[in-house]
Amino acid sequence: MSVNIFLVALALVGLAQGASFGQDTRIRYDNHSVYKVRFETKDQRDWLRKLAEDRDNFKLWHEAKDEIHLMVSPGALDDFQKEVLKANVTADIFIKNVQELINTEKAENFMAARDGSFGWSKYNTLDEIYAWLDEILAAYPVITEGFVLGQSYENRTIRGIKISYKSGNPGVFIESNIHAREWITSATATWLINEFLTSTDDFVRELAESHDWYIIPVLNVDGFVYTHEKDRMWRKTRQPSDISTCVGVDPNRNYDSHWMENGGASENPCAEDYGGPAPFSEPEIQAMANYVSANKEKFNVLIAFHSYSQLLLSPYGHTSEEFPPNFEDQMEVAKAYADAVESLPYGTVYRYGSSAGILYPASGATIDWAYNEQDIEITYTIEFRDTGRYGFILPPTHIVPNAEEALIGIAALLDKCEELGYLELKTL
Ligand code: 0X9
Ligand code: ZN
Ligand code: ZN
Questions:
Q1: How would DSSP label each residue in 72-105?
Q2: For ligand 1, atom 4, which residue shows the shortest CA distance?
């Protein structure tokens, strides 16, 4: 115990020194708090969203059918209280000081990095993930194959790994970290890759060996690097706008499928869900689209990793008025995942439904494009832990439990897909 406290103290001294030499130019979130605001009417919802879009002091963290999570800067607290009274909504605080969570996360990463090894007791940087990927590819040259999806706006390479133990397997595509701040997604994706290659557990081996895996650990590479070096809370890409000083596009609104329809994305470049100046304006998303459409007959299932709120979301994203033809199958598949997660001792509960049905209209998202335009019949967004206690800054102690949930969930999801006939090969 005391050794641990000593190490934390050491880590904090290290961080403080870094800061005092002026190397640390990270954006700070001292006394920024996060509120859950519950609303009832569409007017209230629109007004809350507008608050988050128009004012720098309010940032959107999460939105659901009846609540919105807003990060409020300390100078705007009075203003926020007034607005809440005016709109007649209820607001509960659930994170008092975002910077404190970031500091703890940083200290924990710092300590875990001291032995120099890659692992899942900390969040890794893009360089660390890519160096580890090289090791894995070198260690398993027959089973694995590295591939390049394309280049980002800032000219970073977006890398993927294919894992295939034998020919004739159905294909599962996993997209991860399209949203920069959702660090648990790449941590989980890399843990899964490692399990598929090194596990001696029969259950894991069977799952690994009977599917071909195509995994992109970090899709939004520019945004991801930016969250490590500058702003922990960044979500979007890093391409500047021609019409605004605000940077970046929500990559999960940028696909060419019902793009910008139905209020499913914002036209405001400063909004967190800005759909971009045109579909596929973001090179990262164009690269994904090129790769997936060139190989679509290989993919039976496509899963996009996100956080947070413990949800499984299926198409459609652009409308809640209609449901896809195989909606009932999709719900069975989601139930299998949720039930499997609940069978673990962690007590984590997942809810499921169509994206627009149980969340909000979101158009131009990966899974909707893959489903609508690429004929991949099982596509899911998985929103990992938690439900708001830590939000995006999920402590590293959650990485392995969250990944175990993903593993058992995906296994059950694929079993159900098999049973329902979705894992037949599309070409011979
Ligand atoms: O809004 C999003 O892009 C996802 N939620 S997040 O908090 N990670 O940003 C949910 C997307 C689900 N909607 C569709 N697939 N259409
Ligand atoms: Zn349409
Ligand atoms: Zn996301």
A1: E-GGGHHHHHHHHHHHT-EEEEEES-HHHHHHHH
A2: 306
For 39-63, the pLDDT digits (tens) are 999 899 888 888 888 888 999 999 9
Q: How far is CA 371 from CA 132, 330, 334, in A?
A: 32, 12, 16
Whole-angstrom Cα distance, residue 204 to residue 195? 7
pLDDT by residue (tens digit) across 252-290? 999 999 999 988 999 999 999 999 999 999 999 999 999
Helix (H) or strand (E) holding 352: strand 351-354
Q: What is the pLDDT of residues 380-424, one digit of tens each?
A: 999 999 999 999 999 999 999 999 999 999 999 999 999 999 999
What is d(CA 94, CA 147) in angstroms, rounded to the nearest whole number? 41
What one-letter code names the amino acid at 395?
Answer: P
Give distance in angstroms: CA of 128 to centre of ligand 1: 27
Question: From the CA of 258, how far away is ligand 2's center (Å)?
Answer: 4
Confidence (pTM) = 0.94
DSSP 212-240: EEEEES-S-HHHHHHHHHT-TT--S--PB
Q: How far apart are CA 190 and CA 395, in angstroms?
A: 17
Q: Is 363 helix (H, G, I), strand (E, B) or coil?
A: coil
Question: For residues 142 and 165, what is the distance between their CA atoms, to the nearest angstrom?
Answer: 8
Rounded Cα gap, residues 225 and 65, in angstroms:
31
Ligand 1 probe mutation, 63, 177, 306, most atoms within 8 A of CB: 306
Distance from chain centroid for Cα 317: 16
Identify the structural domains of the chain with CATH numbers, from first to last: 31-96 (3.30.70.250), 117-419 (3.40.630.10)
Centre of ligand 1 from the C-alpha of residue 360, in Å: 9
The alpha carbon of residue 237 and the mean position of all alpha carbons in its chain are separated, in whole angstroms, by 13
Output phi, psi for 47, to 5 deg.
-65, -40
- CB burial of 213-241 (b: ≥16 within 10 Å; e: otherwise) equals bbbbbbbbbbbbbbbbeebbbbbbbbbeb
CA distance 256 to 279: 5
383 included as an active-site residue? yes
> What is the distance between the alpha carbons of residues 22 and 14, in angstroms, rounded to a whole number?
13
